[in-house]
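Give me the fold.
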Amino acid sequence: MRILLFGANGQVGWELQRSLSSLGELSALGHAEGDLEQPVQPRILAARPDVIVNAAAYTAVDQAETDGARAQRINAGAVAEMAEAAAALGALLVHYSTDYVFDGAKDGPYVESDPTGPLGVYGRSKLDGEAAIRATPGCAHFIFRTSWVYALRGRNFARTIVQRARTMERLQVVADTRGVPTSAELIADITALAIRAARAPGAGAAATRANAGGTYHLVPSGATTWHAYAVYLIETLRAAGVAIRVAPEHIVPVPASTFPAPARRPLNSLLDNARLAAHLGLHLPDWQLHVRRLADGLARELT
C-alpha cells in the first residue's frame, strides 16, 4: 500500500508518521514539499498513492477572519483537488475536519447528521472542504471531525497552561465552553485502523468506497470544559512531581467573554463518537486516559 501524507510535521501529522508506517510505503510531506497554497493534484497523480491522508490545514482561527482567501484555498480549494485526484486514482482520501463546523447552540453532543452552522471564516472553510469531498463522484473517503487537539509536540492549550502554571500563582480559564480534548496519538491510531479496514488486501476501489463510509466524529468519550481540563492536567502533573507554581484551587473559572477574540467559538463543541465506534467495532477511551499519557510525557520532559 502506498500512502501519501500531507502535513507531516504538525501535531497530528507527526503521530501519523508513526501509525501509518506499518501499513505500507509512506511518503510524508511537510510544508515545503506539500504546500497546499500551490497546486497539489499534479503531485498526487505523479505519486499514484493508494491512500491520501491530509493532516495539513489553515488553523489560525482568529487570523482567518482577515485572511479568508488563504484559509479557503488551504482548507477547501486544495482539498477539492485531493478529492478529484483520489477519484481519478481509485485511492482512499482521509481528511480531518473540526467541531467549528457547528454553531455550538445544541444542548447535547453533535452527531454527524446534525445541521452545521459555522460561526466564523475558519469553520466555513473547513465545512467547504468537507462539501468538496462529498461532491466528488467516486471519491472513497473518511472525513474525521475532531476537537481540542493536543500532543506532546507543538503548540496547544495543554502546553500553554502548563507553561503558565509553572510561573504564575493564579490562572483564569474558560469554564462555559464544553468539549472533548483529543490526543493526536488517538487520532493517528484510529486513522490507521480505519485505513486498514477500508483497504483490505486485494480490495478494489468499489470495496474501498463501501468500507470507508463518509463522515465520522473522531474524539474520545466523555465531556469536559477548558477549566476542568486544565485542573485535571495540573493535578496530574503535581502528583507526578512536576514543579507547578499555581495550586489547582487558584485556577479560576471564567466565562468565554472574559477573553474577547476576532472569531467566535462554539460554546458547545461536544461530538458524539458512537458512529465511529460502531463502524470500527471498538470502544473509544475516556478523554482523561490520553491526558494522563500527555502528563507522563511532560513529566519526563520537565523533571
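The chain is about 40% helix and 15% strand.
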